[in-house]
Write a structure and sequence with these properties.
- The chain has two domains: 64 residues, membrane protein fhac (Ubiquitin-like (UB roll)), CATH 3.10.20; 148 residues, 3-Layer(aba) Sandwich (Rossmann fold).
- It is 24% helix and 24% strand.
- The strands form two sheets. The chain has a nine-stranded mixed sheet with strand order 6-5-4-7-8-9-10-11-12, covered by helices on one side.
């Protein structure tokens, strides 16, 4: 039998050994192992759902669309029938729909097992802009967002129409925008009714060209009022209400049946001619 010599300190006394410390095993605790197992099972379940055909796209439920076709929506989304919807991210799809000229905003939700629900917040037309190339619906931001000729008739029936005969009008297309000055002038002039002028005309037509600027005519075959050109600073569209008051005053003084033309150079008076040349 061997005897281990005691360990002595510097002072000659034997050092006492402390109690033996046993380290815990590095194995997983039951709770921790159970949590990992649940995560693995969930991941496997998600993989299984993403791989199965049971949650493939089978229906597109579209709402809020008057000017946007379902074909355009499907093309923008890029989704095919059978696309698995379990892990489908809708944020990017909504952004894609917002790129369509007719769409101001969009919301997309998924209704399992196979329906994609799309709600569109479309642009609202305030006037029709007509050029030699076609007629376009314009919203309050000046966006030409749809062709008027292919839009629902009830959506365009009561809108004011402006005929643009300028050379620059040939460049206007769906998806383009009007100059803010043109939008301001057109909305002001387009909102004027015969009653606002004390006129008995059946209607008023508005045109703009490179020679006279904005021109108003009473229908049918009545007087012509030249409102002219507008600029951002020297001759702003906010002078239109004054020009309307001047036109109304001339119509009252001269008589609608007698007035031939009037040039509204300012917002207080105008230079006019009568049908008898005076």
């Amino acid at each position: 039998m061997s005897v281990r010599a005691p360990v002595r300190r510097a002072g000659g006394h034997a050092a006492r050994r402390g109690p033996t410390i046993r380290r815990a095993s590095a194995g997983l605790a039951p709770i921790r192992a159970g949590a990992i197992l649940v995560m693995l099972l969930a991941a496997a379940a998600m993989y299984g759902l993403a791989a199965t055909d049971a949650f493939g796209m089978s229906k597109l439920d579209l709402s809020g669309a008057r000017f946007t076709s379902e074909a355009d929506v499907r093309q923008a989304l890029g989704l095919q029938d059978g696309t698995n919807l379990v892990a489908l991210r809708t944020d990017g799809l909504a952004d894609a729909l917002r790129q369509l000229p007719t769409v101001r905003d969009a919301r997309i939700t998924v209704a399992l097992p196979g329906t994609v629900e799309v709600h569109l917040d479309e642009r609202v037309p305030i006037l029709v802009w007509r050029t030699a190339a076609g007629s376009f619906l314009v919203d309050d931001h000046g966006v030409l967002f749809a062709a008027a000729d292919t839009s629902p008739p009830d959506a365009v029936a009561d809108l004011p129409v402006l005929v643009d005969r300028r050379a620059s009008a040939d460049d206007l297309r769906v998806g383009g925008s009007l100059d803010p000055i043109d939008l301001d002038a057109a909305t002001r002039l387009g909102s004027i009714s015969p009653a606002d002028l004390g006129s008995t005309a059946n209607g008023l037509s508005i045109t703009v060209d490179d020679t006279n600027g904005y021109v108003m005519r009473s229908d049918p075959d009545g007087w012509t009022a030249t409102f002219g050109f507008y600029t951002p600073s020297l001759r702003r569209p906010d002078m239109v209400p004054g020009q309307v008051r001047a036109l109304r005053s001339v119509l009252a003084q001269v008589g609608e049946a007698n007035l031939a033309t009037i040039i509204l150079a300012g917002d207080r008076n105008g230079t006019y001619t009568t049908r008898d040349g005076k």
